[in-house]
């Protein structure tokens, strides 16, 4: 038995919706992106460092050192555990981000509209859908006006199909395709109109569920940062393999101790392999996305984090981004009277002309009240209108390209039809065929309102008797009634955000559909630089080369149609700019996709805009974009610091492992000691440096060049220089210790202690790229404090417990040895402080 659509006006109750969600599951397709715990384990076991530790444990087992072999396996487990925990944390952060970025649905629960994640839509829900939305589930349209849906996902047909609402809900759904069907399907796109649908099937039971497996198998392109770091790891792996084989052969032929030769080769390979790079990249990008989400910005693509720091131009909408999107009627104006928002609404009823203007404006508005200006008109009209007159809606004339006006035809009497129109003043003036003097007077009134930042719509009406309705508004010949002005206050945070953009070398361009004078007034209040203004009509007359020349000077684009944004983006890119573009509509999607950083609106944005974007603003606030840029610069800075630290610390470790063989010393760094060092290096690069606060000049320096590399020449050279200075100081301390007659195990202990100290010192050296080294010791970082405490406990345990020292083959050290170690570290820091002065400017590039 079919259900009547009228019975569904209040939707499901919250309790019934939860019951159905528990019984039928989430509205999502099979084949989730979430990785199982076993896939994480398998990925970790393929790490090269794990293989080297296992081989070293086998060698120790072959020579009868079972305790050392067991401990190496413990170290392997600890090293892998750190990697596993970090990746697991990253997976959880990604899962949380996936939940946040999943499509939202506006449902009616207990008679109240509520926005919920699309995966929580259940069978029987009533969903409000509007232009630009993805349909969240399969169902039928029970209310709607001029609804057209793109069903190409299911049918392959690119032409949108027309839908009509039904009064009774069918029990089953037929196949998609064809005009005038009430059926709408999950994943299809509403390209025109709005309405309400009743959900009949969700998740795997929907039509798109049949192709869910194919969609889940799509591969994503590997980010540039990941490719770059993998190339570096491969280069180091090849170099490490060559050197390891050379050391094994050299050690074996010179001394005849082949097992020790293998251990030396393994130690050198472990010391040369920067296996922290992939871990650091994963942690930084995922945790960076998580930090951005805490600033109300969702990252849909990891590459956006890299690009954020290079943005040179921010193209922003006005309404809802620079302003609060709390539109209210500020002014009503007819030839014989006017009303201001400072006056009580009842004053409108005292003027028949003003009352008629407001009534016709309300009749010309969409009944779904999606547009904030239409909502403002309806709110004011309801506060002053008497008992509403019964009228039947006959036809709607929606906005269309080339005519910024809309109309609605109402049955006003037995033989009369009222056509109510509203739209841009110039469009209404054209429809009303105003004389030149009337047009000049209208333009003057619009300008007088617009200079105060008031957005203006013109309202007109036409009476039609005994004739068929016109096919378009051009055939209506309406009469102008007056103007309606709207105000939308600027967000309080915008002026400060604009000043921050200027100090960061980022140009802000406002793109709006508003009247030029209104756009200029808002731009002035917001603090946008006073450049040229270009209208959509003027833009249409320019070719691509001329537009590229103009965009270098334009700060405000007014009366811009959504499809013109793409030309603006391409013109800016042609000038070498790195472009961030905001958008919320279906027609904004090409511009969002073409921009280096597409920014979709989370509150008022359509699903198709969010899918095309790289970032989603949850609060639609311009200041959030600026915070995202600052955070993106911080993340990129910290990523470079971590990479430089990793390269630097591997130089003294590898150098000691190699020079000990060349100088004929006993094995200085065993695989166990290197594994122990890795327990310090991994958290230092992936936790401590990731948590570093932003540099003080992060938003006071120009954007970095978009073609710059993460591991730039100056950064690699600086890292190698750090490592070389550390290695030189280390070798001086060890040579002096050898000449003083210290035993081999004492020299090994001193070398290990020095390496731990060098590790800590290099963390401080790499904490900042722009400040002096002294500032690095006083900057707060809770992760660093915890890390230093861990190192202190580790050293106290190893050197304070004789059994531990004997196990690691480390001798006891005297106060003089500790003083020499401290002196060497101080010397290293002083040398690096002097060396960093000529490097600071190049490191910031």
Task: Provide an overview of this structure.
- The strands form 4 sheets. An 8-stranded mixed β-sheet has the order 10-24-23-22-11-19-21-20, with helices on both faces. Strands 2, 3, 4, 5, 6, 8 and 9 form a 7-stranded antiparallel β-sheet that branches. It has a 7-stranded antiparallel β-sheet with strand order 13-12-18-17-16-15-14, sandwiched between helices.
- The chain folds into 4 domains: 3-28 and 102-216, Calcium-transporting ATPase, cytoplasmic transduction domain A; 226-294 and 637-693 and 709-843, Up-down Bundle (Calcium-transporting ATPase, transmembrane domain), CATH 1.20.1110; 297-324 and 491-620, 3-Layer(aba) Sandwich (Rossmann fold), CATH 3.40.50; 328-487, Calcium-transporting ATPase, cytoplasmic domain N, CATH 3.40.1110.10.
- Helix 22 (607-612) links the parallel strand 23 and strand 24 (615-617).
- It contains 31 helices and 24 strands.
- Helices cover 50% and strands 16% of the residues.
- The longest helix is centred in the last third of the chain and has 41 residues, at 622-662.
- With 845 residues, the protein is α+β, with helices and mostly antiparallel strands.
Helix/strand layout:
Layout (H helix, E strand, L loop, with lengths): L2 E2 L9 H11 L12 H9 L2 H15 L3 H36 L2 E6 L2 E6 L8 E5 L7 E13 L1 H4 L5 E3 L4 E2 L13 E2 L4 E13 L10 H5 L7 H32 L2 H15 L3 H19 L2 E3 L3 H6 L4 E4 L11 E7 L2 E4 L5 H4 L2 H12 L8 H13 L7 E6 L7 E7 L4 E8 L1 H8 L3 H15 L4 E11 L13 E9 L6 H10 L3 E5 L4 H11 L5 E4 H5 L3 H8 L2 E5 L6 H10 L4 E5 L5 H6 L2 E5 L5 H6 L2 E3 L4 H41 L8 H18 L24 H27 L4 H22 L7 H4 L5 H19 L1 H6 L7 H22 L3 H4 L2
Parallel strand pairs: 11-19, 11-22, 19-21, 20-21, 22-23, 23-24
Antiparallel strand pairs: 1-7, 2-3, 2-4, 4-9, 5-6, 5-8, 5-9, 10-24, 12-13, 12-18, 14-15, 15-16, 16-17, 17-18
Helix pairs in contact: 2-4, 3-4, 3-8, 4-9, 4-24, 7-8, 7-9, 8-23, 9-23, 9-24, 12-13, 16-23, 19-20, 23-24, 23-25, 23-26, 24-26, 24-28, 25-26, 25-30, 26-30
């Amino acid at each position: 038995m079919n259900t009547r659509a009228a019975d569904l006006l209040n939707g499901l109750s919250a309790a019934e919706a939860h019951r159905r969600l528990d019984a039928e599951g989430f509205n999502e397709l099979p084949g989730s992106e979430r990785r199982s715990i076993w896939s994480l384990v398998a990925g970790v076991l393929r790490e090269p460092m794990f293989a080297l530790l296992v081989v070293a444990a086998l060698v120790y087992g072959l020579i009868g050192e079972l305790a050392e072999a067991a401990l190496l396996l413990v170290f392997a487990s600890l090293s892998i555990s750190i990697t596993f925990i970090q990746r697991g944390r990253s997976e959880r952060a990604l899962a949380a981000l996936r939940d946040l970025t999943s499509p939202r649905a506006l449902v009616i629960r207990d008679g109240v509209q509520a926005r919920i994640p699309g995966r929580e839509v259940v069978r029987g829900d009533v969903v409000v859908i509007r232009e630009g939305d993805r349909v969240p589930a399969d169902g039928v349209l029970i209310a709607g006006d001029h609804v057209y849906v793109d069903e190409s996902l299911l049918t392959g047909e690119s032409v949108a199909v027309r839908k009509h609402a039904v009064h009774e809900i069918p029990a089953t759904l037929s196949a998609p395709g064809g005009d005038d069907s009430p059926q709408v399907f999950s994943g299809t796109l509403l390209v025109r109109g709005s309405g309400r649908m009743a959900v009949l099937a969700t998740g795997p039971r929907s039509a798109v569920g049949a192709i869910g497996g194919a969609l889940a198998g799509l591969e994503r392109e590997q980010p540039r940062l990941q490719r770059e770091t993998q190339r570096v790891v491969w280069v180091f792996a090849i170099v490490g393999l060559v050197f390891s084989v050379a050391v094994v052969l050299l050690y074996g032929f010179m001394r005849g101790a082949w097992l020790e030769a293998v251990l030396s080769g393994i130690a050198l390979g472990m010391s040369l392999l920067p296996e922290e790079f992939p871990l650091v990249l994963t942690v930084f990008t995922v945790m960076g996305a998580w930090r951005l989400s805490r600033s109300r910005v969702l990252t849909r693509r990891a590459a956006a984090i890299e690009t954020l720091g290079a943005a040179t131009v921010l193209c922003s909408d006005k309404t809802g981004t620079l302003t609060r999107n709390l539109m209210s009627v500020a002014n009503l104006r007819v030839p014989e009277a006017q009303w201001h928002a400072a006056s009580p609404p009842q004053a409108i009823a005292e003027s028949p002309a003003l009352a008629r203007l407001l009534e016709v404006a309300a009749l010309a508005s969409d009944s779904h009240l999606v547009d904030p200006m239409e909502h403002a008109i309806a709110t004011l009209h309801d506060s002053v209108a008497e008992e509403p007159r019964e009228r039947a809606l006959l036809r709607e004339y929606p906005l269309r390209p080339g005519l910024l006006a809309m109309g609605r035809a109402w049955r006003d009497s037995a033989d009369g039809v009222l056509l109510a129109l509203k739209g841009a003043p110039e469009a209404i003036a054209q429809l009303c065929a105003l004389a030149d003097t009337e047009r000049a007077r209208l333009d003057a009134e619009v300008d007088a309102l617009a200079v105060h930042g008031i957005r203006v719509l013109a309202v007109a009406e036409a009476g039609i008797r005994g004739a068929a309705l016109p096919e378009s508004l051009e055939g209506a010949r309406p009469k102008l009634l007056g103007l309606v002005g709207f105000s939308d206050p600027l967000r309080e945070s915008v002026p400060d955000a604009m000043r921050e953009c200027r100090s960061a070398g980022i140009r802000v361009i406002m793109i709006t559909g508003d009247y030029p004078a209104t756009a200029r007034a808002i731009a002035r209040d917001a603090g946008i630089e006073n450049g040229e203004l270009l209208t959509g009509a003027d833009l249409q007359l320019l070719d691509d080369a001329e537009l590229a020349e103009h965009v270098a000077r334009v700060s405000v684009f007014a009366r811009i149609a959504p499809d013109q944004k793409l030309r603006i983006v391409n013109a800016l890119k042609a000038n070498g700019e790195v472009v961030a573009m905001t958008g919320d509509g279906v027609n904004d999607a090409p511009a969002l996709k073409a921009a280096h950083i597409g920014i979709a609106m989370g509150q008022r944005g359509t699903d198709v805009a969010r899918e095309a974007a790289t970032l989603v603003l949850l609060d639609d606030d311009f200041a959030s974009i600026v915070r995202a840029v600052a955070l993106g610069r911080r993340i990129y800075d910290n990523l470079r610091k971590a990479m430089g630290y990793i390269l630097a610390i591997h130089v003294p470790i590898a150098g000691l492992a190699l020079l000990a063989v060349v100088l004929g010393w006993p094995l200085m760094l065993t695989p166990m000691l290197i594994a122990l060092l890795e327990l310090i290096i991994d958290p230092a690069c992936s936790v401590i440096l990731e948590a570093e606060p932003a540099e003080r000049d992060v938003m006071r320096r120009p954007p970095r060049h978009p073609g710059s590399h993460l591991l730039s020449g100056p950064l690699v050279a600086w890292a190698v220089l750090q490592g070389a200075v550390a290695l030189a100081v280390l070798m001086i301390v060890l040579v002096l210790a050898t000449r003083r007659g210290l035993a081999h195990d004492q020299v090994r202990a001193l070398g290990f202690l020095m390496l731990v100290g060098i590790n800590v010192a290099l963390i401080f050296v790499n904490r900042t790229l722009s400040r002096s080294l002294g500032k690095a010791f006083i900057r707060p970082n809770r992760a660093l404090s915890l890390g230093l405490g861990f190192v202190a406990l580790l050293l106290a345990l190893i050197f304070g417990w004789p059994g531990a020292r004997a196990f690691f083959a480390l001798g006891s050290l005297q106060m003089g040895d500790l003083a020499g170690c401290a002196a060497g570290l101080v010397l290293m820091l002083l040398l690096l402080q002097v060396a960093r002065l000529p490097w600071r400017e190049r490191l910031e590039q």
